[in-house]
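User: I'm curious whether this sequence folds into something compact or stays loose and floppy. Could you predict its structure so I can see for myself?
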Amino acid sequence: MAKSLWRERNDALDPETDYVEIVQNLSTYEFPWDILQALGFALFRTFAVPSVGRLLYETGAFTEATQKRYDDTGLLLEPPIVHGFESAEGRAALRRINQMHKAYDISNDDMRYVLSTFVVVPKRWLDEFGWRPLTDNEVRAVVNYYRALGKHLNIKDIPETYDAFMHLMDDYERTHFAFDQGGRRVADATLHLMTTFYPRPTRKAVHQFGRALMDRPLLDAFGYVAPHPVVRKASVAAMKARARLLRHVPSKRKPTFAIDLPRIKSYPDGYAIGALGTFPVPGSGGCPVRHTAGAAKASA
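Assistant: Here's the prediction. I'll summarize afterward.
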C-alpha cells in the first residue's frame, strides 16, 4: 500500500473531533515502534525531576519490578487510544491510573509536566528520527488527545497548544532537573531493562546507544558520562538510516498493540486492566510504598 496511506487518512479527519482515531492510527499503524520508544524516553525524562524520580524510587516498582512496571505503563496507556475514553476498557484504564495517583501526594505541576512530555517528546523524536514528521493536523490531534487524557486524570490548567506544551516542558526541566539518588536508581534500572530486550553480547553497546540519544541536560541530571562524540554520531546516523529505509516500506495494514510486542513479558496468559499497576501494601495505611527503616517516606 502507498506509504502516504495513514498521513492522507489522518489529514482527512478533523483533529478537533477525531483526535482519538488520529492518535490510534499514529500509534498502531504509522509509527508503533517510534512512538513506543519516544514515550519511553518521555517517561525517562521525568525521572530527572527529583520530586518525580524520588517518589518512583520509593514505591520500589521501578527498581524491584521494573519489567512489570514497564509493561503496566504501556498496557494502561493503550486502552483509551485503541478503544476511546468512553469505552469500558478506556474507563477501566483511567480508573486504575487515577487510583494509583491518588495514593500519593503528587503536585498538579508535576502531573502537567509529565503530560507535556507525552506531547512534546514523540513529536521531537519523529522530527529527528522518524521517516516523516507529523503533519499540522496530526500535531493538533495529539494535543487534543492528551488534553482530554489530562482532564480525565483531573489535571488542572492544561496547555491548549503544542507550543504551550513545549514551553511548559522546557521551562519545567530548566528549573527542576537536578541529581537525586532515587531518580538515578530508577533511571539505571530502566536503562538496564532496555538492554535486556537485546542479545546479551550487544547489551553494553545498547546501553551506550541509549545514552547517546539523551541530551546533555538529561545526562547531567542523572550524573551520566556523555558518550564519546563518535558514539553519538554513529547512533544518530543509524537512526537516520533506519528512517530512510522505512520511507520505502509500504504502509502497515495490520495494527500493532502493546501486548503483541516481545518487550511486554509479564502477562503470557493475558491480563485484566483492573489488576495492572500498584496497590496498597497491607499495614501501610493505604499507601503502596513500603516504609523500611532508613528509607524516606512518600506522602500518601
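Summary: Residues 291-300 have pLDDT under 50 and may be disordered. The CA atoms of residues 68 and 266 lie 6 Å apart.
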